[in-house]
Design a protein that fits this description.
Blueprint lengths: L4 H12 L2 H4 L11 E3 L4 E3 L1 H10 L6 E3 L6 H9 L2 H8 L3
Antiparallel strand pairs: 1-2, 1-3
């Protein structure tokens, strides 16, 4: 099933208009292409492979170009790299 254009536009807007979401939350070097639904963050393909390898049970990863369900879309509304940074700053 192809991704609806409204969903594609919404996800694209999240990672192009928001400077914090545009680059990987882990390495901060690469453009994002995958969301970590578990934490509501965005990662690059290289770092997503690290998550799969090292944290297969903890990290639920979702490519931005796949069809998303309502729960996954809700995570994008309440999450994001900036909020994750702010939360982790104390640690």
């Amino acid at each position: 099933m192809p991704q609806p254009s409204s969903q594609k536009d919404y996800l694209n807007l999240l990672v192009t208009e928001n400077e914090f979401n545009a680059f990987c939350v882990d390495c901060q070097d690469n453009r994002v292409s995958i969301a970590n639904i578990t934490y509501g963050t965005y990662v690059c393909e290289k770092c997503s492979l690290e998550h799969i390898e090292n944290f297969p049970i903890v990290s639920y990863l979702k490519p931005l170009d796949e069809v998303w369900d309502p729960y996954q879309l809700k995570i994008t509304e309440v999450g994001g790299n900036k909020l994750f940074y702010e939360f982790m700053r104390e640690y």
